[in-house]
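Can anyone check this?
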Amino acid sequence: MGNIVAIVGRPNVGKSTLFNRLTKSRQAIVDDVSGTTRDRQYGLAEWCGTEFSVIDTGGWVNKSGDVFELEIKKQVEIAIEEADVILFVVDIQNGLTDLDMQAAKVLRTTKDRPILLVVNKSDTFEMEYGAAEFYSLGLGDPIAISAMNGTNTGDFLDLLVSKFDKNKEIVEKYDDLPKIAIIGRPNAGKSSLINAFLDEERNIVTDIAGTTRDSTYTRYNKFGFDFYLVDTAGIRKKGKVTEDLEYYSVIRSIRAIEDADICVLMIDATRGIESQDMNIFSLIQKNRKGLVVCVNKWDLVEDKDNKAVKTMENAIRERFAPFVDFPIVFTSVISKQRIFKTLEQAKAVFENRQRHIPTNKLNEFFLPLIEAYPPPATKGKYIKVKYVTQLQGPIVPTFIFFANLPQYIKEPYKRFVENKLREQWNFCGMPVQIFFRQK
């Protein structure tokens, strides 16, 4: 089970800069204008072998006093409920503000979640002395860092990782059945799809309560299918969060992606691909899970012809490139059109995930190919690949190419090799890992 870290704080304290530093990306737009981050960002971070998901809550928009307090309270509450560790970010250059005090007040009431008080923008060592004033927030020791230039971020990350619950129950391996999660933006039709599967004869369906928080595994075995459905979408807990469904469902999706083997990403045909879909897709990619894209509400699309399907497919693959080898199914949950096709594809992707290619077959195919199309020579040195093998064990199909100068092999060549591999063997829907190593 992955850990989830939520970054909270008033606008313009550098939450997005910290997010970018943790996820080693430039995903969040950074600007001096307060409230730049409207959309919530989420990404995957890693420190000393521990992976965790990071969520950057959008900046709170400055409204009139009381409304504003509610906003803060709401965001902080969701973070408290769902995240494993909360980073409360304040800004040393502005000092303590009443907004910080208000947020700290809400945070002090949470006993069971570790909270780290991060004093950002401590760009020089002299500035760190100013961190002392934040003791008055009552949230423990302030940690002075600079997300911009990286001062103290190593020590801070050590501390952060130490806060994760080491005894967090690992979801037991029930058996070798595939675990399928249905993921997507709110209102793309996830719940309807799950209900369409589970509608009749509920007695065949058994619920296994999820171990950590509440990923529930529902065993589904009829019509020749047998798998676990990972319940996502936070369908059950609607009480508290009405407005912030989007944020809530995102956190839920992250949990579900981590618990599943295959993700069915639902896209609303009437809305096309939105940035949220791209975000979820990149999360599925980073977690190296199998993928089936399901374009729902296809019955609502006007003037469909054979070209429409092709156009939509091309648009999707274009947006998700360079990973384009995945099945796309067009469904209408309402009329139960092709919903079992979705399951068939998910099952096929799971089989591709377990495909193991004998070493002699790999070498027979690849060695002549690489000899005919060798990697480009670098600095006058020729690269020779001597041997190829697929690793046993990793969840994602992983291939090792042994070469004399692996460090000179660039990304485009790896992509060429991967494309040839996919042409020869079926790994549709699965990411594959290709490594070049020193013999």
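Reply from J.R.: I decoded it. The chain has a mean pLDDT of 77.
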